[in-house]
């Protein structure tokens, strides 16, 4: 088995909701380019189908990239400074270190066989060029597929100009029906038309009109799709008449071939003219959203001044029917996307009617209020829903913050960044969150509650990034403000985070005193969040210093507090802390139960740091019970997690001795070769699979102890050997894996050398024998579980 199956979760591509039509030449050419070049750029005007082609190529070649195929959507990104972080987020790298994003990204991809799809780069061209060239130099097997209206212009780049689905020039002669229906433009139009008019087909009676429509639209895919939607209300002849009228007006009667961007603009103009006045207004107003939006946001931001709130739903339905808004049904609550070409058109209209600034303020106000509401409600039963919602809204939250700081409303921006503290700590955005907080702190120097809150929030992020001196400086200033203004809440959080810095300085006695101060102050003012955080940390430090009874009592108090509010996230960390202490007391069964319960919740929240801590405890338990193969694999899983976070154990570094002792025990139990093999097997698991393995949810055959793989081949060589056994030629192997034929030949030479063979037939026999032996082992295992 190759590593591909274990990496399938890394293929983060959206599901195709409509059929992919044609493009056989472009697909073949793109695959050829990817096999020869590490950077391939699709160029062409908006609406020509670059993104759809890139997604199809990525889906087709995903088997060739065992370390993942990743889509990075850049259309909604306006700030070039966020490019690297956006790519890291798409790759699920949660950099919790203070290292430069470029370094973390390059290290993560350095030895990986992965495909990165950067979509819609034209507005960030210089920055994308630097990023791609930097990654290309830092890695050996990374491939990058770019879509842009213009090439990046970097070394080694191959470009493919994506053409429209044009029809052949027949000098006015109508194509026969059989020929016409084989053309991509006609097939696309017919398929999209049949979706809105069930039973629609191209026939002898209508094929001449269909051909003229496709020619009139220059075969531009987006134009064809927008036009097909009109068949809900128009006949084919009416559709053609209106296209002719509009384009004739634009070209003053010229019969010259229309520039494609003008053709598309004309069709969007026409789509706009077919909307009602209120639909046009809503189209313009939703253009202020980034990424996507939900109905509540549309009602709040876009209603008023010509649109009644109760009418927004029907107007949204109208824009969905007209293919202006695209419903995204993958989320529990329906969200709506808007294509970048359509969004830009709406922004122009919004500017024309003089509402752009007002709508941007309303957008900012809505997301400012959303952040404040999340801050109030995150400690409670709806926690997972809120964390998920903030992740979906991240692009809009970022846009709102950009508006605040761009318009000089720095206090509002600082308050909003502070309210989003748990969004920064639990997601992919820790570095970005710290950046917003520091930007606001640099601009707002008045010693007030806003600044004090921002200081302790920024100090927490600095602690997670193990920048302890910076955190101590911020906490000292926050304490001074809190004491001067008698801000009890500020002093509670300062005590809490000062306890964390004390533990990072290996001063447990001072940390205990500070945590106890934090508990007392938080309890006095009725702040359950600060109290839960302080009790969690107090549980761990009591455990570390050997005060077992006090540690368990503190952990149980924390759980009781969380249960009173229906809170789960802090409770999960309390379970982890109790698990550590029960493990130290020798109660492995209770420790494992607590760690697994905590891990299940952290998985649902997608909290990778929390999951890593849970898996650490489970690895220690496995080593202590002499389950060395399991402990080794868990070490491999943890290696992937800590690499993704850019840090090991983060602010829980004082637990490192337990980790080191466990690893040493496992290494002695398996031997160095066996230990490395077990770690490799764990490292090959995708994150979701690693969590499932830690929870012992994997199939039984994945959980039994097995000897280390004695194959001398690398995973890539094993994969190629399997293809040789299937009878593929070097050329076919190269095409399947999207590599150069010379590369495939080189791999086969290495395989022959390692195995001591001199023919492909011997490789095939070797593969079949190994597969047969693996099958016999599986059969033996199945019979063994059934008794005598």
From TrEMBL:
Keyword Nucleotide-binding listed: yes
Pfam families reported for this sequence: AAA_22 (PF13401), GerE (PF00196)
HTH luxR-type domain sequence ranges: 706-771
Record's keyword terms, sorted: ATP-binding, Nucleotide-binding
The organism's place on the tree of life at top rank: Bacteria
Database matches in InterPro entries: AAA_22, P-loop_NTPase, Sig_transdc_resp-reg_C-effctor, TPR-like_helical_dom_sf, Tscrpt_reg_LuxR_C, WH-like_DNA-bd_sf
GO MF, one annotated term: ATP binding
Keyword field contains Nucleotide-binding: yes
Xref: CDD domains: LuxR_C_like
PANTHER family in UniProt: HTH-TYPE TRANSCRIPTIONAL REGULATOR RV0890C-RELATED, REGULATOR-RELATED
Protein name (Swiss-Prot/TrEMBL): ATP-binding protein
Organism: Microtetraspora fusca
């Amino acid at each position: 088995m190759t590593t591909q199956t274990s990496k399938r979760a890394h293929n983060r591509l959206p599901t195709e909701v409509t059929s992919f039509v044609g493009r056989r030449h472009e697909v073949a050419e793109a695959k050829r380019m990817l096999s020869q070049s590490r950077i391939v750029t699709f160029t062409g005007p908006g609406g020509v189908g670059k993104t759809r082609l890139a997604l199809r190529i990525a889906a087709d070649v995903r088997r060739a990239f065992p370390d993942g195929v990743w889509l990075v959507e850049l259309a909604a990104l306006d700030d070039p400074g966020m490019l690297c972080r956006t790519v890291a987020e798409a790759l699920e790298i949660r950099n919790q270190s203070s290292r430069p994003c470029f370094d973390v990204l390059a290290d993560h991809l350095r030895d990986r066989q992965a495909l990165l799809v950067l979509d819609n780069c034209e507005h960030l061209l210089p920055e994308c060029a630097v990023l791609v060239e930097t990654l290309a130099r830092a890695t050996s097997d990374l491939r990058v597929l770019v879509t842009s209206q213009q090439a990046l212009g970097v070394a080694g780049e191959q470009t493919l100009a994506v053409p429209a689905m044009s029809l052949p020039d027949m000098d006015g002669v109508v194509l026969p029906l059989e020929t016409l229906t084989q053309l991509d433009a006609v097939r696309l139009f017919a398929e999209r038309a049949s979706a809105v008019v069930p039973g629609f087909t191209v026939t002898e009676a209508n094929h001449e009109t269909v051909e003229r429509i496709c020619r009139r639209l220059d075969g531009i895919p987006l134009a064809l799709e927008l036009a097909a939607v009109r068949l809900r209300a128009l006949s084919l002849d009416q559709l053609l008449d209106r296209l002719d009228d509009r384009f004739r007006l634009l070209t003053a009667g010229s019969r010259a071939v229309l520039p494609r961007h003008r053709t598309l603009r004309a069709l969007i103009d026409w789509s706009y003219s077919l909307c009602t006045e209120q639909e046009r207004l809503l189209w313009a107003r939703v253009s202020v959203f980034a990424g996507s939006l939900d109905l509540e946001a549309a009602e709040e931001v876009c209603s008023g001044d010509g649109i009644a709130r109760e009418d927004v739903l029907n107007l949204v339905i109208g824009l969905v029917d007209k293919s202006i808004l695209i419903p995204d049904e993958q989320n529990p609550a329906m969200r709506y996307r808007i294509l970048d070409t359509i969004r830009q058109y709406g922004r122009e209209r919004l500017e024309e009617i003089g509402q752009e600034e007002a709508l941007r303020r309303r957008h900012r106000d809505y997301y400012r209020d959303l952040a404040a509401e999340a801050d109030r409600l995150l400690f409670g039963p709806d926690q997972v829903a809120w964390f998920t919602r903030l992740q979906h809204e991240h692009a809009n939250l970022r846009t709102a913050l950009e508006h605040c700081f761009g318009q000089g409303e720095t206090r509002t921006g600082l308050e909003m960044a502070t309210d989003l503290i748990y969004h920064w700590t639990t997601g992919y955005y820790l570095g970005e969150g710290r950046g917003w907080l520091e930007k606001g702190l640099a601009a707002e120097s008045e010693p007030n509650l806003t600044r004090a809150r921002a200081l302790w929030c920024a100090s927490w992020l600095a602690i997670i990034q193990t920048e302890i001196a910076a955190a101590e400086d911020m906490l000292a200033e926050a304490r001074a403000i809190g004491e001067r203004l008698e801000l009890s809440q500020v002093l509670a959080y300062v005590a809490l985070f000062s306890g964390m810095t004390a533990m990072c300085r290996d001063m447990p006695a001072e940390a205990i005193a500070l945590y106890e101060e934090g508990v007392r102050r938080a309890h006095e003012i009725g702040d359950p969040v600060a109290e839960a955080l302080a009790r969690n940390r107090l549980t761990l430090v009591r455990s570390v210093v050997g005060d077992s009874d006090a540690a368990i009592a503190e952990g149980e108090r924390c759980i009781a507090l969380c249960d009173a509010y229906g809170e789960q996230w802090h409770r999960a960390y309390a379970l982890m802390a109790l698990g550590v202490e029960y493990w130290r007391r020798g109660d492995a069964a209770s420790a494992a139960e607590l760690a697994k319960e905590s891990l299940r919740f952290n998985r649902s929240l997608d909290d990778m740091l929390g999951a890593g801590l849970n898996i650490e405890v489970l690895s220690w338990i496995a080593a202590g019970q002499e389950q060395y193969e399991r402990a080794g694999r868990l070490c491999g899983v943890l290696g992937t997690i800590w690499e993704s976070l850019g840090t090991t154990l983060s602010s829980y570094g004082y637990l490192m001795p337990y980790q080191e002792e466990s690893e040493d025990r496992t290494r002695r139990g398996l031997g160095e070769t066996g230990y490395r093999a077990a770690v490799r097997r764990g490292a090959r698991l995708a994150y979701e699979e690693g969590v499932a393995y830690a929870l012992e949810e994997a199939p039984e055959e994945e959980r039994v102890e097995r000897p280390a793989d004695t194959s001398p081949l690398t995973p890539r060589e094993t994969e190629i050997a399997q293809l040789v056994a299937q009878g593929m030629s070097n050329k076919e192997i190269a095409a399947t894996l999207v590599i150069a034929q010379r590369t495939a030949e080189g791999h086969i030479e290495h395989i022959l050398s390692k195995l001591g063979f001199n023919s492909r037939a011997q490789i095939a026999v070797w593969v079949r024998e190994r597969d047969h032996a693996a099958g016999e082992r599986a059969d033996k295992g199945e019979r063994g579980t059934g008794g005598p």
